[in-house]
Amino acid sequence: MRLNQIEVEEIVKRALAEDIGSGDITTSLTVPPGSVCRAQIIAKEEGVIAGLDVAALVFAQVAERYSDKEPVFRSGVADGASVRPGDIAAEIASPTAVILTGERTALNFLQRMSGIATKTARLVELVKHTGARVADTRKTTPGLRILEKYAVRVGGGRNHRFGLYDAVLIKDNHIRAAGGIREAIQAAKSGAPHGIKIEVEADTIEQVKLALEAGAEMILLDNMGLAALKQAVALCKGRAVTEASGGVTEDNIAAIAETGVDLISVGALTHSADALDLSLEIV
Q1: What is the pLDDT of residues 168-221, one digit of tens each?
Q2: Domains of the chain: total
Q3: Same-domain pairing of 224 and 87
Q4: Which stretches of the chain are DSSP H helices?
Q5: Dihedral angle at the C-alpha atoms of 206, 210, 212, 214, nearest 10 degrees?
Q6: Residue 162's closest CA among 175, 170, 172, 150?
Q7: Residues 6 or more apart from 11 whose CB is under 8 A from it?
Q8: Which residue range is the domain that position 109 belongs to?
Q9: Contact 229, 205 (CB under 8 A)
Q10: What percent of the chain is predicted at pLDDT more than 90?
Q11: Is the pTM of this model over 0.90?
Q12: What distance in Å separates the CA atoms of residue 112 and residue 262, rounded to the nearest whole number?
C-alpha cells in the first residue's frame, strides 16, 4: 500500500501553489520572525486515518520555501488505525509560520483521505460475513485519484481499474457503438493484450447469458435487484467473476453481498465520502 512519491510530491506542490499563491499574508504580518511551536492534529470523531505521509509532505514542502529549519512530523498512529475523539493523529514541531501556512492544505488531504478510508471500512465490515469484496470506481476527484484509491485500500477495500488504460470494461455505450454484446466482446478479445481480462456490463439476465456465450471473463451486474443478482450469480458460477454495481448503500450492501457476488463496486467511496473531522491545534 505504498504511494508513488513523485506523483504525490507533484499533487502537494499544486495544492500549495493554489493556496499560498504569492505568500501567506496573515502569517507574515502576525507571527514574529524566529517563532517556533509544537502542534497536534487531533481527531474530533471516530474514523480511520489515511494520508499521514501526505500531510507530513505538505509541511516539508512549506519549510523548503519559507524556512531553513526542517519540521519534525511524528505520527501518533499509522494509516489504517482507528481513532476516537481526542486521539492525537500526529504532532509537528516546526517554525510557527510553516505550521500555519501548511495547516489547511495538510488537513484537506488528511480529512479527505481519512473520510474515504472510514467509509470504506464501514462497508467492508458490513460484508465480512460473505465472500464479497468491496471495490472503488473511477468516480474520483480529478487529479487526486492516486490518493483516493490509496485511501480505499487503507480502509480495507480493493482498487478497481486505475484508468481506461489498465483494464477492459465494456459498458452500455461501447455495446451500442459496437453493434451488440457479442460484437463488442469478440472485438475486445481479438485485440486485447495477453493477460487482460474482458469485463462487460449487463443490465438484464438475457445480457448476462449473451456475455457468457461470448466468453466474457467478468460481468458487471448493473443496478440489478436482489432476485436478478442471485440468478446471475448462479448462471456465472465457475464461468465468470461477478461484480454488482449501482445504488449500493450501507443499508443494502449486506443483502447484495449475500447474493453471492464476488465484487461490489461503490462509486460513493470516493465521490460522496464525508471528510473526517480533524483539527490542528498549537500546544
Answers
A1: 999 999 999 999 999 999 999 999 888 888 999 999 999 999 999 999 999 999
A2: 2
A3: no
A4: 5-20, 25-30, 52-66, 96-126, 145-154, 172-178, 181-191, 205-213, 226-236, 253-257, 268-271
A5: 180
A6: 150
A7: 54, 143, 144, 146, 147
A8: 5-122+274-282
A9: no
A10: 94
A11: yes
A12: 28
Catalytic residue numbers read: 104, 139, 171, 201, 222
The mean predicted confidence, pLDDT, of the chain is 96
- 247 three-state secondary structure: coil
Q: Which three cell numbers stand for residue 148?
A: 483516493
25 and 116 belong to one structural domain: yes
Q: Do 225 and 162 lie in a common domain?
A: yes
- The answer to whether residues 110 and 147 belong to one domain is no
Distances (CA, A) of 238 to 66, 218, 235, 255: 60, 11, 9, 22
Asked whether the beta carbons of 87 and 77 are under 8 A apart, the reply is yes
- Alpha-carbon 95 to chain mean position: 32
